[in-house]
Specification:
The chain has 279 residues and is α/β, with parallel strands linked by helices. It has helices spanning 169-176, 226-233, 252-266, 268-271; strands at residues 2-5, 38-43, 57-59, 79-84, 87-92, 101-105, 111-115, 146-153, 157-162, 194-198, 207-211, 236-242, 275-278. The strands form 3 sheets. It has a 5-stranded mixed sheet with strand order 3-1-8-5-6, with no helix packed on it. The chain has a 5-stranded mixed sheet with strand order 10-11-9-12-13, covered by helices on one side. A hairpin with an 8-residue loop joins strand 5 and strand 6. The radius of gyration is 28 Å and the shape is elongated. It starts with a strand and ends with a strand. Mean pLDDT is 83; it is low at 182-190 and 218-226.
Length: 279
């Protein structure tokens, strides 16, 4: 979770024009500047939310106060927080984990406003009227919005590789793309999804291949962090179901049925996705 806070608006100014031979120059207090807003921005170069792990507070710049001679204060700079494509943004209130969906970022450079900056206060020049030519009041700037956000990443990929742990998914994506996931001969080597772009001789048109962590029985109920893995399958257009038929400790047919049960158990739409069985 992250805490975002927009900038406060600047205060209006109380001032009067003072020049030689102009004894009653009238009010000249300027308005305060608007506070900076906080935006989440889709960035195709990022694959994880890891860069947000060690910083929880994001604050935009406040607006400057108004000045004499009807000078408006400078508006605060907006704060842009890059996130990977496929990020869903939920508002969190009172420490709860659930909350309403504010939006999702699916394209590069797409923006989502998560905290609006405060409006600047009006200076006394804005309050001058024919009956009150020398007002001595001004507005204070409004505070910027702030909220807690929960970010959830569902990777965007053309094809996702699913299968039991240690079935060879990382080896496949390393052979087809320039991605270099960790490869070892023990289960759950892959702990986070990996993306690779398949191009060149392996594909007539480049496409994105996702290496998803292995699924086990009960994954749809959370076993082996299965619910964290299965959510990434939702955004894949087609599934590559990888099976190792040479493993003497596993029955290939039983493994295929186990994966299908977990897909259907998490969400029925997953089991209905186009699926290619790869041995």
């Amino acid at each position: 979770m992250i805490h975002v806070r927009a900038g406060n608006g600047g205060d209006g100014c109380v001032a009067f024009r003072r020049e030689k031979y102009v004894p009653r120059g009238g009010p000249s207090g300027g308005n305060g500047g608007a506070g900076g807003a906080v935006y989440l921005v889709g960035d195709r170069r990022r694959n994880t939310l890891y860069h947000l792990r060690f910083r929880s507070l994001y604050v935009a710049e406040r607006g400057r106060h108004g000045e004499g001679s009807c000078r408006t204060g400078r508006s605060g700079s907006e704060l842009l927080v890059p996130v990977p494509l496929g990020t869903q943004v939920f508002e969190v209130a009172d420490g709860e984990r659930s909350g309403p969906l504010l939006g999702q970022l699916l394209t590069d450079h797409e923006r989502l406003l998560v905290a609006a900056g405060g409006r600047g206060g009006r200076g006394n020049a804005s309050f001058a009227t024919p009956t009150d030519r020398a007002p001595r009041r001004a507005e204070v700037g409004q505070p910027g919005a702030e909220r807690w956000l929960r970010l959830e990443l569902k990777l965007l990929a053309d094809a996702g590789v699913v299968g039991l742990p240690n079935a060879g998914k990382s080896t496949l994506i390393a052979a087809l793309s320039a991605a270099r996931p960790k490869i070892a001969d023990y289960p759950f080597t892959t702990l986070v999804p990996q993306l690779g772009v398949v191009a060149g001789e392996a594909a007539s048109e480049p496409f994105v291949l996702a290496d998803l962590p292995g699924l086990i029985a009960g994954a749809a109920s959370g076993a082996g962090l299965g619910t964290r893995f299965l959510r990434h399958v939702e955004r894949c257009r087609v599934l590559l179901h990888l099976v190792d038929p040479t493993d003497p400790a596993r029955d290939p047919l039983a493994g295929i049925e186990a994966i299908l049960r977990e897909l259907a158990g998490y969400r029925s739409e997953l089991a209905a996705k186009p699926r290619i069985l790869v041995l």
